Structures are given as structure tokens and as C-alpha cells.
Pyruvate dehydrogenase phosphatase regulatory subunit, mitochondrial
Amino acid sequence: MIYQSVRLPLRSPRKIGINRRVFREITRCYATQLSDSTDVVVCGGGIAGTSVAYHLALRGKRVSLYEKDAVGCGGATGVSAGLVSAPTFWQDFTNQHLAENSLKLYADLAGSGKFRYVRCGRIFLASTLASEILLRRMYSRGILHNEHVELLDDQSDMLARWPYLQTEDVQLALFSPEDVSLDPVAMCQELAERAKALGAKFHEGVEVKEVLLGDEKQVYAVRTNLGLVETPAFVDASGVWTGSVLCKQLPHRHIQTAHHPCTYTYLHSSKLPSSSVCDTTPIINDLDGNVMVRLTGRKTRCAGFHEEGIRPIACPAATGEWTQPEADWDKFEISLSRLLHRIPLLSDVGHGDLICGMEAYTPDKCCTVGESSQAKGYYVASGFNGQGLSLAGGVGKLLADWIVDKDVSVDVARIDVGRFIELHANSQYLIERTPEIAAMTYINMYNSHQCHTARNLRMSPIYHQLRDAGAVFGESMGYERPLWFEPNSPKERNALLQGQDTLLGKPAWFERVRSEYEACRERVGLIDMSSFSKFEITGPDCVTFLQYLCSADIERPVGTTVYTGMQNEKGGYVTDCTLSRIGEQCFFMVAPTIQQDRCLSWMRKWAIDLKRNVHIQDVTGMYTALDVVGPSSRYLMNDLTGREFSNREFPAFRCQEMNIGMATGIRAISVTHCGELGWVIYIPNEVAQNVYDRLVEKGREYSMMHAGYYTLRQLRIEKFYVYWGQDINATVTPMECGRAFRVNFEEEIFGTQNTK
Ligand SMILES: Cc1cc2nc3c(=O)[nH]c(=O)nc-3n(C[C@H](O)[C@H](O)[C@H](O)COP(=O)(O)OP(=O)(O)OC[C@H]3O[C@@H](n4cnc5c(N)ncnc54)[C@H](O)[C@@H]3O)c2cc1C
């Protein structure tokens, strides 16, 4: 029921010339009563929340947005430089798709003529080989989106087009014509107007105080400073405040989110004294200087992303106002010198103001979108890593589809809030990691990229033994995993891979991986797989429950292992996994490392929805997993355990519990994840070092060699084993990836009760 429609002045307090406190009082008087029920409540009227509200309204949902300040003015959107990156910049399809949808939406809104919108394009400059390769890759992607993307390798051509640049050291330039410069506040407000025209209710000067959860941790109401609103869905799009709204029923009284505010500093000064500069002058991104410049006919804006110049900021209080962190000229000095190097004329521009905003950064430079596993109906759209304007248009559409259809048509694994586990929300972890991410705002992060901050967080019990054996570690989900081994390197070395592999040519590890690969193919190799996600699923309904979730037939005898997909409603992969039946009512599941939270929340959701009597426990941290692979693995395992590992006694796709030396409770599974003969042994952590030492000792007789993930990948590729996140994801079905033979098409799901 709606008591009174709420119309508020959609202009910033700054623009109408009153301070924020007075503005809030005025808006409070306007908003005397609130609608008491709605389909979705959105918290935050920045670009993300406004975009979500607009797209929900477009899908016919009743939506109420609450903004404690004024639309577009209360957070990062209000201080944004207003530069929208074209899809050319992003490497992965999901972000390209989001950027493309944002550009389309903003271009459509610009048709109203109510805000400044200039399609100025952007120039990326490379002065090193690594950046040059990066630009060539961006170019090959870019021309798929826009045929007018250009590469320039002649400095005189560059100078002819952009005479204000110093190009002596520039090896390559890429021109991306689609990038846009716009007024973020006015654009956000125009989007709000469109949403309101579709029926969305915008309540400015109203703060969300609490999200109320029911017994099953589902959202049922939201409390604002003006009263209670009943709703089954809540979207937290409150920028750096995301996760700070009270949720009393949760253990931490808030949802845990993996993002942290850091500074975003730019210099605002007058126009560059050059007749070639006008409003359509392209944005300039100097990749090696890590600086960005926006020159217009009226002013100049320069930003710098040097890591030393970026500070993590304490999260503002939940009820606090947007405050600008203090700008630090000393920290901006490196960026300033690089800016002057690239555009010497900047020294003729007046001193200018150094402005410091704050922005939410995530540990992996991807935004966080989707339903939190901590509360049903609690969605987030945040952590935009300095590119929120470029992505939020697309994110709003994606999240609206997700809420309405309970499904999306693109792979969201990279941006799904479920890719993180609780430790990623640890503030110390984020404080250490996020400045490094912020420094890469305009630099592509390749899959092989390894951060240098916040490392050595999760490690297997044999980490130090592996390091002494020469392991070079890379991190996934905070877990250190050996990528390859450098056996003759000094023990006291830093064993962490930082940065990324060379982008072209033979990588440094090539010969090492070749030897490891040969060992696995010809003798025996030992691969640490401890980071893989592991679960125990027990209870009287576990067979019917798993049969429902999985596409293979998992109703096999105790001692059997099945490789299967867990499929979503459209047949796409939620995950791939092995399920080992270790008891009549007990399964041991192993899934990819990055699937830890997603698998757990998917299974728990279905256990509740289907009312199945099952218990699901995450046992990832309880077992060390060692993969013993290669033709000699059978003999090594025989010697190690004193048991028969013949084809007859221990064929493929079987699991057995056994002792190794003095250690007990070890689960051996004859599925190696790489297609070679072998066994993965899951060892209780407390005895892992003991078993490892024994294994290495015995392995000498078989010339066993340590191998890392790069070797595992190589072995998998040769066997056409699909790889989660690259070959398969939520949009790929078993039919499409050659895994139809794993599907049990005869499966009858709970009789006629197929609700999937
Ligand atoms: C200096 C600077 C320059 C930038 N330049 C660019 C750029 O050129 N291009 C680009 O793509 N990105 C840029 N960004 C990043 C971009 O601005 C952000 O990613 C984006 O604006 C984030 O939007 P948002 O809606 O998530 O958050 P915000 O804009 O911060 O909005 C969150 C809103 O939630 C409200 N809120 C919080 N808590 C509550 C509550 N409890 N109840 C009600 N309301 C609440 C706040 O008042 C605020 O208005 C820049 C960022 C900064 C800091």
C-alpha cells in the first residue's frame, strides 16, 4: 500500500546551495510516509543503485530506492571523473559485455540532451615491450567491437594528431574511439528520472538502517529512518558502505564483503595552453607512466595510479557522510613527474587543486555482483575498482535479470560475489591487497598475474617442505599453490611468483615444466592439490539430493568415484566435481579451488528448497591433497601402503580409505584430474607432513619428481579435460563441451517432482 508518493528535489545540495544537513532535513519533511511493501529495496542512489533500480522497473518490478544523500551525489559517483571505458579495455567477455551495455545505456540517455556527453575516445600509450604487447592484444579484441580502433607505431603520426604529447619514448599508441566523457551526476539523475517514469520510487535523504532476516536468513523487511518496508529482496549498492547496513541475525551483524576503500587522486586545473585541445580531445592513458589525463576546452584533469601514492582508507562509519580523504601532494609527486614527462605543457598550467576521492576496490580487480550466500535475497553491486561508471550500466541490467529470472545469460563467475570466502573480507587482508589493485586501474591483469601483497595467507601443512624442494608459488583464493619447481634454487629465496609471466615467447619456467611433464608421463610426479574445495555430504537423503543436483548417475556402490557436473536449470555448469561414495550415506566431494563458497551455497540452497535431510560440511581446510601420477605411481603406492594397487584391486574411479606408515584415515581416489594413471591421496592435515616425508623417501626409488600446476594444466589439455572457468562455466552445457557421455539422460528426478 502506498501512503504518499514521494517527490524530492533531484538536485545536489551543492547545486542548490545548501549544506547537506539542511538538505537532509528538507528531504525528510517531504518524505513523510513510505510505501510499506515493495518487490525490491535498493540501498544507494549512486550510479550502481540507480542503474539497478532502473532496470528492475523496466522488468516490471516494484522498486524503492533509498539514498541517504541526493541521487548521484552521496558517494563516488559525485566525484567521479566521468570517463567511460569502451569494451576494448577489458580482456574477458563478461566485463566487455557490461561495458558495452553501459555505453549503450548512456548514449541512449544522452539523447535527452540533459547532461554533458562527449564521445571523445581514448589513447593508450606504450613505451615498453610489455605494454606494447598489451596494446596489440587490446587492439585485436577492440576491432571486434569497433572497426575504427587504431594502432599507431609512427611517432610523427602520433604528434600530428596529438601535438601536446611527448612521444619520443612511445613505441605504440592505440586509439579507442568509443570512450566517453560525461557528467556523472546529471547522467545518474537522468537515469533516476527514467526509472521514476517506469514506476520506481526514489527516496532521497532517507537512510537504510537495517535489513531484517527471517529464520532461514532470508530478507523480509528493511528498516529506514522513516519506517519499515516489507520486501523479499534487498540490493546493497551503497558504494564504500556496502556491507555496513545492520543485519542482526548474521554472526558479524553485517554481511561480509570483500572490498575496501582506497584513495583515488586527481589534479584539477585550468585548460592546457594549446590550440589543439578541445572537448573532443581523447582521454590519454600512459600505461607505463600509470597516469591518465583528460584535456578539455575548459579544464584539465590528471590522475595518477602509482602504488606508492594510493592509501587504503578506514571504512567510513555506516551512518557517516561522504568525506574526502586529505590529498597528499608528496604522494602525488611521482605521478606528477610522469604527467609532466608525457605532456610537458602541463607545467604552464596553473597549480590546480589536488582532489582525493575514495573508491571501493576488491582483491582481484573485478566488481562484486549477485546474491550473498550469507542471506537469501540480499544482493550486492559494488567494488567497482575505479571503473564503476564504465560498468554500472551493464551491472544494473545484469543484476535486475538475475533477481527477476534467477538466472543470467552471461558467465558471471568472475564477478559473482560467491567467488570469495569469508577470509577475503578480512580488513587486514584488504588493507594490504587493495592499493596494489587500485594501482592497476588502467592496466590489464592477465590470468597469470600474481599480486605481491597479502600473500602466504592460506598454505598447506607441507608448504615449507615444498618451498625447500624449489616450489614457485602462485595464489588462488588466497591459497599458495606450487606452479612449478626450481630444484637448485637457494632455500632462503622468496618463493612467491609476483607479477606475471612474460607475455610473449618462451616463459622462464618452460624447461622446468618440460621435465616435470616428462616425469609425470614416463615415471612418477607428485602434485600438491590441497587448495581444491572439499566437502562431505551426509545424511539419509544424500543420494537423492545429489542425484538431483548432478547430471551423472551418482547412485553407485560405496567405494566408487564419479566425475560429474552439477547443472543449473539450463544445463550449464554450476561446477564440475568428483563425488566419492565413502559410506551408504556419505559422499566426499572435490571441486575447483575457486568454487568453495559457490558450491557450498548452491548445495545448501537446494537442501533447503527441496527439504532434504542432508548435512553439508566444507572440509577444504582439513585435508592435504597429493596427486601421485604417472606409470610408476601404481608401484610406488604399492610400496608405500603395502596394498595392492593393481587394475583389479584398485581400478580407476574408485576410492578407499587406508593407512600410510603410522598415519591413518587417508582417502585414496583413483582419479587424477589430469588423465594420467595415478591416485590423489587426501591426508588429514595433522599427519600430512609425516606422509609427505615418507612419500618423498619412497619416491626416490622411482625417480619421482615434484610437479606444479602448470604441468597439471599441460597434462589436462592433452587429454581434452575441461577446465573450470576457461572451458566450462554456467553458460556451457555438457553437450557443448563434449561431456555428454557423462550425463545420465535416464535420470528420474524425485519421480515427477522436477522443480529444477
Ligand atoms: C575521484 C574518482 C574518480 C573516478 N573516476 C571514474 C571514471 O572516470 N570512470 C569510471 O568509470 N569510474 C570512476 N570512478 C569510480 C566510480 O565513480 C565508482 O566506481 C562509482 O561511482 C561507484 O558507484 P556506486 O553507485 O557503487 O557508489 P556511490 O556512488 O558511492 O553511491 C553509493 C551511495 O549509497 C549511499 N548510501 C550509503 N549507505 C546508505 C544507506 N545506509 N542508506 C541510504 N543510502 C546509502 C551513499 O550516500 C551513496 O550515494 C572514480 C572514483 C573516484 C573516487
Q: What stands out?
A: Residues 12 and 453 are 39 Å apart (CA to CA).
